[in-house]
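Justification of resources, computational component.

The compute hours requested in this renewal are based largely on the per-chain cost of generating structure records like the one below. Each record pairs the submitted sequence with a full structure-token output. That output is archived, and it is also reused by downstream analysis tasks.
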Amino acid sequence: MAQNIARLLQLDDCLRRIDVRRTALALAIELEVSERKVRYDLDLLRERLHAPIANSRALGYHYTDLSWRLSTIPLTQGELFYRKLLTTLLHVCQPRFGSMPNH
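The structure output for this chain reads:
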């Protein structure tokens, strides 16, 4: 669950930057997930969270209204990086050490 939230926050950040044209494939590479997962996340943002996402030849996927917000908790790029790093480490270590206790 935390991994999904972190990925959605990263996708949100990507959609806000208009420095490069963002196709589903480019987003998948940047987020280190499959193109199918990116398309699923884009659909989730649009349909369930009513995100104003459009896709054009010139810009690729982007927000049509940059005032729309996904998160009520602001995270810096560094915090997102460390969150992704910790999620990856937990995923890698779990088979080795067994499941982590739930508190």
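Strands lie at 53-56, 60-63. Residues 26 and 44 are 18 Å apart (CA to CA).
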